[in-house]
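Students often ask why we bother encoding 3D structure as a string. The short answer is that it lets us treat folding as translation between two languages. Here is a chain of 83 residues written in the first language.
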Amino acid sequence: MSCKKTTKYECKVNNNLSYWFLKNRIVHLFLSGGNMSDTISELKSLFKKHLIYIRLNRKNPRDAGKYRKRLKPKVTKNQRDAI
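And here it is in the second language, the structure alphabet:
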């Protein structure tokens, strides 16, 4: 996908939104007995409408295990055991 010619950055399709668009239309796409090309053209236009820019040289460190190190609080049981 390419953005407008006047933009500074290259573009790509927003994956998060594209999965949401597909999820909402997949049933209609397969179960409609009519023409699938209308739904596919609608999806294409939505994908082109929601593009994101690819910004180069981004070097923010990401700590993937940050929340894995934290211990979960111990939950006490406030009910009796069932017999």
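Translate back mentally: The first helix runs from residue 15 to 31. Keep this in mind for the problem set.
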